[in-house]
Amino acid sequence: DQQVKQNSPSLSVQEGRISILNCDYTNSMFDYFLWYKKYPAEGPTFLISISSIKDKNEDGRFTVFLNKSAKHLSLHIVPSQPGDSAVYFCAAPSGGSNYKLTFGKGTLLTVNP
Amino acid sequence: GAGVSQSPSNKVTEKGKDVELRCDPISGHTALYWYRQSLGQGLEFLIYFQGNSAPDKSGLPSDRFSAERTGGSVSTLTIQRTQQEDSAVYLCASSLDHREGVYGNQPQHFGDGTRLSIL
């Protein structure tokens, strides 16, 4: 049973436009969420996180929005750059801990020049 | 180094052999985690260290798996008598102390993993 779901396996956007990556979760007890970016043959790279006491966190071109009532979060990348092309994972600590990360299956973002 | 370092990056060995995987966390990170990802599967938690202690070993799949951490830094994951189902990418991550009352929630920073293939 997937507790963190990314329903879009891929997304393609034009350079300079906004990329919106979505993630849904099932457990209302989750209180901390993270986004990671991954290139082939590399480990996940931490991008940005958000605590459930907030509904928005911004870091440069990256903004994460959290809608607790809908159990939904999204990552906005503005403006998108070709170097952003990678697989993006949302994750949350689960299993009654604040460290056992469970990951979604990822969304492959392609930013076209 | 600036990031989490894992070695070797690739390991191919015969069934029944023992293997040792190494993780060098980010300097100053007291928490260290091992995960593995089998082909087509999600990330599976194995073990968590706080300093040199492992308060949570619940993810280790069998007693053939063990891990230690020394000096609050380098960690070694050992798999004895390897089986083909042990083939996976083994990822190590580290973070600042995430315990409540210390820093609270902390992002985990991952190494590039060791790709283990058992023939």
Please tell me about this protein's structure.
The complex is a heterodimer of chains A (113) and B (119). With 113 residues, chain A is mostly beta strands. Chain A has a single domain (4-112), classed as Immunoglobulin-like (Sandwich), CATH 2.60.40.10. Helix content of chain A is 0%, strand content 56%. Chain A has strands at residues 4-5, 10-14, 19-25, 32-38, 45-51, 56-59, 62-67, 72-77, 86-94, 100-103, 107-112. In chain A, strands 2, 4, 5, 9, 10 and 11 form a six-stranded mixed sheet that branches. A five-stranded antiparallel sheet of chain A has the order 1-3-8-7-6, with no helix packed on it. In chain A, β6 and β7 (62-67) form a beta hairpin. Chain A starts with a strand and ends with a strand. The mean pLDDT of chain A is 94. The model of chain B has no long low-confidence stretch (mean pLDDT 93). Chain B has a single domain (5-112), classed as Immunoglobulin-like. Chain B is 0% helix and 48% strand. Chain B has 119 residues and is mainly β. Chain B is elongated and about 45 Å long. In chain B, strands 2, 4, 5, 6, 9, 10 and 11 form a seven-stranded mixed sheet that branches. Chains A and B meet through β4, β5 and β10 of A and β4, β5, β9 and β10 of B.
How is the topology of this model organized?
The complex is a heterodimer of chains A (113) and B (119).
Chain A: E1 4-5, E2 10-14, E3 19-25, E4 32-38, E5 45-51, E6 56-59, E7 62-67, E8 72-77, E9 86-94, E10 100-103, E11 107-112
Parallel strand pairs in A: 2-11
Antiparallel strand pairs in A: 1-3, 3-8, 4-5, 4-9, 6-7, 7-8, 9-10, 9-11
Chain B: E1 5-7, E2 10-13, E3 19-24, E4 31-37, E5 43-50, E6 53-56, E7 65-69, E8 75-79, E9 88-95, E10 109-110, E11 114-118
Parallel strand pairs in B: 2-11
Antiparallel strand pairs in B: 1-3, 3-8, 4-5, 4-9, 5-6, 7-8, 9-10, 9-11
